[in-house]
Design brief:
Blueprint (H helix, E strand, L loop, with lengths): L3 H9 L2 H16 L4 H10 L8 H4 L6 H4 L28 H8 L4 E6 L31 H12 L7 E6 L9 H12 L6 E6 L6 H14 L3 E8 L3 H6 L6 H13 L3 E8 L6 H13 L4 E6 L2 E2 L3 H8 L7 H14 L5 E4 L9 E3 L6 H15 L17
Parallel strand pairs: 1-2, 2-3, 3-4, 4-5, 5-6, 6-8
Antiparallel strand pairs: 7-9
Helix pairs in contact: 1-2, 1-11, 2-11, 8-9, 12-14, 14-15
The chain binds iron/sulfur cluster.
Length: 395
Amino acid sequence: MISHAGLAGSLKGGGKKANQGITAITRLLYHNQIPVYRNKLQQIRGRSRPDFAHFLNLGGAGGNVSSGKFSKRVYNGSEGRDAMRYQNGKRYYTMSQYCRTRYGGRIVKVPLLSGCTCPNRDGSRGSGGCAFCSFTPGNISKEISEQYREGCARLLPKWPDARPVAYFQEGSNTHLPAPSLAILLGQAAALPGAAGIRIATRADCIDREKAEMLAEFQQSHGLPVEIELGLQTVHDRTASALNRCHSFAEFCAGFSLLREARLYICVHLINGLPGETPEMMLESARAAGALRPGGIKLHMLHLLRATPLAARYAQEPFPLLSREEYVSVVCGQLERIPPDTVVERLTGDGAADALIAPLWTRNKRAVLNLIDWTLARRGTCQGALWRESEPVQIR
Ligand code: SF4
């Protein structure tokens, strides 16, 4: 058994040592797969034969795909993964497909404020926050139950067949001290009709006690607990320039604690961060995929009013990705993540009134359509270039 400290330590040196460390993490995490995959895949096993042919025969993703590298070796120990098929004519594993399996149908996430802050704003790790972030911590004026009631009243009429999931979206929710987190979970457990809980946080706000508490809650209440972790980039130089106060090695350590606790983990990445090339963005997706997260959210960088990055941009504009450039990167990223990682988001929509640029992100439908069209034109799909054991290149 490799200790997390050992893994993190081996990453610090960079280069070959770092690659060995990441490969070790990948192996460690891979062999602690979340049972939900097995349940999900057991359900689809037998229903359809393994078949990527309708993707692979289209040509264009290169010899790696058409030479049949979706082999038993790649899917070692998870026989059902060979049966992964994307539904609704998509070439990636959508959230709605996942929800049908895990929740039995559609869900609606009801945003709730826990009153947490963030270690990058309260001085525990840094101050001023990440350069792109507009989150402002503050006291909550309404009880969780009241927020939930109001959220359900607002959202459920739009999707009457959906089940609500309590979504602690803002800030770093597991930065709450353990006793406060326990109280929050208790409140969430009492929400009527909640199908599950989602908690957004930073990986450096996870320790063993909190990971076990979350796992215990999931087991004792029979409610899925899903964690969203902001990674944004695997490149520490970029992260440092954005005042993330958070390294990729630290991310891996927190991630592995959650994985050991058998919780679903969704990783967030941002494309178009200043100074990053498309190759670096592809590398972030590949490295995140190598950790075998349950889900991934891909975003375009939004320049939002009253953020340090917007101020920097006003003084010295830096290039932003065009819609076509973004789509090209996203399609490449989809090819490099595992076929069974849920693609929870392919384009974000920052608050419309706070968005400075790029304005093309406002038309989400156009972005999604262009992604579908580009994947089809390239004859490729999610996972087409994914290889389980490739080491991660950190810059
Ligand atoms: S992005 Fe997350 S970690 Fe960074 S300042 Fe905002 S809430 Fe904190």
